[in-house]
Amino acid sequence: MTSWLDLVAGVSFLVLAVATARTSRLMAVVSALTGVAWFLADISAVALFVHRPLQIHAAQGYPDGRVRGRFAGALLTVAWTGALIQPLGRNAPFMLALGTLTLVQSIRLRRQARPGRRTEAATASGAVAVVALGLMVPAALRLSAPPRITEHNWGLSVYSALMVLTALTLLAGVVVRAATGRADEMIELSEVTPSQTLCALRVELAAQDDSMSNQQLRGAAQLLETNAELQATLARNADEVRDSRRRLVDATVAERRRLEDILAGGALTYLDELSATLRTLHERVDDATKMLIRAGLDEVERSRDELEQIARGLHPRILVQHGLRTALTELAERCPVSLTVHAPCVRYSEAAEAAVWYACAEAVANIVKHARATHATIEVHSSAGVLVADICDDGLGGATVTSGGGLAGLVDRLGAVEGAISVRPNTGGGTHLEIRVPVQ
């Protein structure tokens, strides 16, 4: 049986050389030399182990026969040392060590596969793993097997069979690669980022010998480079737009605060002074004039209340002074619908607190106007650098983000600070709004 296996082992590598002659001359040469060295071992004792490094070269060099990397070069150096120094090549511990290094290389080939080369790397890795077993199993048998097994030369039979399996693994890879063309590579490249694809194409362009393939790869690389430049320009423009929107939001908040200060420190103060003056006059005039003064006082109070509402809507001073929880609690006290607030006492950035407060105020206004709810809740918490507000009501439900609607305005407002809103039905009826704003 051993003689038949010997013949098949050598012939299988010669067949591999013929199969790879059209795609890679180097792979064909290495495979042919492996088969020839295998047969030379029966003629000259000097060539007894020469096939080993050639076999390792063919397995890890698939599909183009090129050996890449320092580890691969070091492995071949160790293998050639054992092939040329025959006492070392016959040494079982040395063979186990060489097999272990080869097995490590099999793992490295699979893990370090480039995009577009994973299928080929899997074939090379499998072939190298079989070579590793061919080196380790006979050595292990010599060290541990009973004498009768050693006498029957079972180790050589196993070695020959695994050498045949190595060639068959590589042949299967050649057949599959020829049948699928470059489809597998395109599928693999479609699953990675454009920059990784571009790097893979450049590596392939450097390794490709066919001028037609070079032209096609160069065209694909140029398209990807143009696309990468466009993507980079788009990303810069998007960053500029986001910065511009953020500046507009900050300017709007600052202007709201300025108007609120004007109203609180100017108009409301003047109305208070006017009210005090009218009360003083009320004590010094006749009854007919007192009636006119009381009517004037009522108008002053109404005007003052309206200005306070406007000032509070422009920029709630309580939000700046006491934080989001207190501002939302005051919002609940003024809401005609029963509103429960759960929020932490923690202070967040001014922009985040303002964005959440305005969004909650607008959402509550929509609940009052359209939901016909009897109760609503606001729950605020932070998670992973994001301030989250959940607003639930027991109203009619069916709220959606439509163009021109109140929720559409919320989307625009939150988008300006890179926030977001999601709308879904509330458990038990009504609507659940989730507002998310990054904590800057």
Rg computed from alpha carbons, rounded to a whole number of angstroms? 40 Å
Largest sheet, strands/sense/barrel: 5 strands, mixed
Classify the beta-strand content into a percent band: 5-15%
- Structural class, judged by helices and strands? alpha+beta
Shape: rod-shaped
Alpha carbon gap, first and last residue: 76 Å
- As residue ranges, the low-confidence spans are 182-191
The count of strands amounts to: 5
Helix content: over 70%
Provide the fold topology.
Layout: H1 2-20, H2 25-40, H3 51-61, H4 70-84, H5 86-90, H6 92-111, H7 118-144, H8 147-151, H9 154-180, H10 183-189, H11 194-207, H12 211-282, H13 287-314, H14 317-322, H15 324-334, E1 338-342, H16 350-371, E2 375-383, E3 386-393, H17 406-415, E4 420-425, E5 431-438
Parallel strand pairs: 1-2
Antiparallel strand pairs: 2-3, 3-5, 4-5
Question: Can you tell me about this structure?
Answer:
The chain has helices at residues 2-20, 25-40, 51-61, 70-84, 86-90, 92-111, 118-144, 147-151, 154-180, 183-189, 194-207, 211-282, 287-314, 317-322, 324-334, 350-371, 406-415; strands at residues 338-342, 375-383, 386-393, 420-425, 431-438. The chain has a five-stranded mixed β-sheet, with helices on one face. It has 440 residues and is of the alpha+beta class. Helix 3 runs antiparallel to helix 7 (118-144) and helix 4 (70-84) packs antiparallel against helix 6.
